[in-house]
């Protein structure tokens, strides 16, 4: 993305509202059918004021050797959760909504979320980190759910 236009800022705001309504802690533009390298996220605790962020063209430039395992879910794969192990800390470069190039260090849930959402931009889902058996079980459940919804 060469520059951050008013239209892209509006898209980011719409994605934040969609993420919050879901409710979720992250959302990538391809999940809503927009082929842009944009993610939004907000991993603040429920008792804290929301602090959503929008990252255009995010790239992980460093990741720790230390790992964390979190139970991940995805708005694209509703009601399915599995533990995924990822680097505990990452440094990410991106363009913010004002068009400034930035680099942020993320740890804990923020690190997991930013990696999960960047994966969406690269065509990867959290189930791609699972064993073939677990992935097949989730895929089977999703196919069944899709058929049930088609009949309704």
Task: Characterise the protein shown here.
The strands form two sheets. This protein has a five-stranded antiparallel beta sheet. It is of the alpha+beta class and about 150 residues long. The longest helix has 20 residues, at about 130-150. It has helices at about 5-20, 110-120, 130-150; strands at about 25-30, 40, 55-65, 65-75, 75-85, 90-95, 100-105. A hairpin with a 5-residue loop joins strand 6 and strand 7 (about 100-105). The protein has a single domain, classed as Peptide deformylase (Peptide Deformylase, Alpha-Beta Complex), CATH 3.90.45.
Q: What is the structural class?
A: alpha+beta
Share of β-strand residues: 25-35%
The 3D shape can be described as globular
- Please estimate the helix content: 25-40%
The end-to-end distance, rounded to whole angstroms, is 41 Å
CATH architecture: Alpha-Beta Complex
Can you summarize the main beta sheet? 5 strands, antiparallel
What letter string, H or E per element, gives the SSE order? HEEEEEEEHH
In what order do the strands lie side by side in the largest sheet? 1-2-3-6-7
Poorly predicted sequence stretches spanning 5 or more consecutive residues: none
If helices are DSSP runs of H or I spanning 4 or more residues, what is the number of helices?
3
Q: Rg from C-alpha positions?
A: 16 Å
CATH superfamily: Peptide deformylase
**Which fold name is given in CATH as the topology?**
Peptide Deformylase
**How many runs of DSSP E, i.e. beta strands?**
7
Overall pLDDT level? 94
CATH class: Alpha Beta
Number of domains: 1
């Amino acid at each position: 993305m060469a520059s951050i236009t008013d239209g892209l800022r509006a898209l980011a705001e719409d994605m934040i509202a969609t993420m919050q309504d879901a409710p979720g802690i992250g959302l990538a533009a391809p999940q809503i059918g927009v082929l842009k390298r944009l993610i939004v996220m907000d991993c603040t605790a429920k008792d804290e004021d929301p602090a959503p962020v929008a990252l255009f063209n995010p790239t992980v430039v460093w990741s720790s050797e230390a790992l964390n395992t979190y139970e991940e879910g995805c708005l694209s794969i509703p009601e399915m959760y599995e533990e995924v192990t990822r680097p505990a800390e990452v440094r990410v470069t991106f363009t913010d909504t004002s068009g400034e190039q930035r680099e942020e260090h993320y740890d804990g849930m923020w690190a997991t979320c930013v990696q999960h959402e960047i994966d969406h931009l690269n065509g990867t889902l959290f189930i791609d980190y699972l064993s073939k058996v677990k992935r097949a079980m989730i895929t089977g459940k999703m196919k069944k759910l899709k058929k049930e919804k088609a009949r309704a």
